[in-house]
Amino acid sequence: MTPGLSTEGKPICRECAGIITALDCTNCGREAERLRGGHCARCVVTADLTATLRPHNPPDLRLKRLIAELANVSRPESIVTWMRGKAAAELLAKIGNRELMLSHGAFDALPPARHVEHLREMLVRLHILPDRGDPRLARFAAWLEDRLETLADRPDVRAALEQFARWHHLRRMRENRIRNMDNATRNAKQEITETGKFLIWLSDEHRATIDALTQAHVDEYFSTGTTTRMAARNFLQWRARTGIGKRYNLRYREARQTPLVSSHERLALIRNVLESDTGVLSNRIAALLFLLYALPVRRITELRTEQIEFTPTGINLHLGDHPAPVPEPLLPLFHEYLTSRANQCTTNNQSPWLFPGTRAGHHLTAQALLQTLRRVFGINILAVRNAVLHDLTKELDAATLADLLGYSNQVMNTHAARSGVPMGSYPASHPPTPVMDAHIHASDQ
Predict the structure, then answer these.
(1) Residues 433 and 357 in one domain
(2) 0.90 exceeded by the pTM?
(3) What is the pLDDT of residues 309-323, one digit of tens each?
(4) I need a surface site. Which of 20, 46, 156, 335 has the fewest CB within 10 A?
């Protein structure tokens, strides 16, 4: 511990600082802040969890290991805070009373809640519960069972919906390598929900099943009501592809305009993020990655520390085939974050993710970051993304940008065409050079 300060303001040990306050745990003898009864946080965690979980009555080696693991995290004070919460305390008490067994089935039987999933994933991370794959897929499967159960009195609707949900969505998630399971499950829920509404409408309004569907029914349903009805189109397309149903003429809505902020507005957003004194550092870094490189929010959350390269001249990000340089004015901010990444004090120690999440073993979710970018920094996601790519295609050719940022050539050529860049798909005659510094320096003017 270095609780004192030197005359130069640097942290020093208590002997050098002349501190005589007792800072040794009376139980284990470690030099640490004493929380209760002269005991340090690790001893408090051990004592409280032992009293609550009762690992010796009856003996359970899994509970003994859980206590040892939680007491040995890098910042046990965070475990003390978590244990004091009402929701966590009730769950731990149920485990200690043997009302809640250490099994996925027992956790599935509990009402869905964030604190339940947090504890479950902590147990998986510590190998106390088996890893059954992506927890979002497991939650989706449970949600689907509940959704189908609500249609028990409508067998025709349920049968058609269950085919679509299981054979298309659930099968695709289980067999394919879904990069963004969060988005996949959200989209699947919306499509299944809207398909259910469509099938119920067909039954109630026309006394018809899906096998009797006509083009007139399709035109009537999708030309009226809210735009959320469009989510049911994939159901009809899937039936046609698999040969279960006929093909219908399904009209697509075209975007009336492409949202786009001005370069001045984008630079103002960069300045606000850079000058933010109250913003969480991890949020500021994520926002800058979006404002500078137009990376999809999902890709930002999935960045790994191995994609960060330290060089004698700065920091490179490996986003595509070529390294993307971090602008020089941002290097101190990036260095500060990389030496003190968030959410690593409990069960996410040594996380490989650049932006570790609060749940053990997971990165920050795309939905959480989206909300932060919108609410904290006031970023219009689509308009800013278009503006960044619009500006960058004026400074580097589309092919080079595709290699630099990991986008497809098709996407970059589309943005190059929108920005009016002639021959945007042709590679430049010079190697990629940093193009971001100009934006940062311009924001200071």
Answers:
(1) yes
(2) no
(3) 888 888 888 877 778
(4) 20
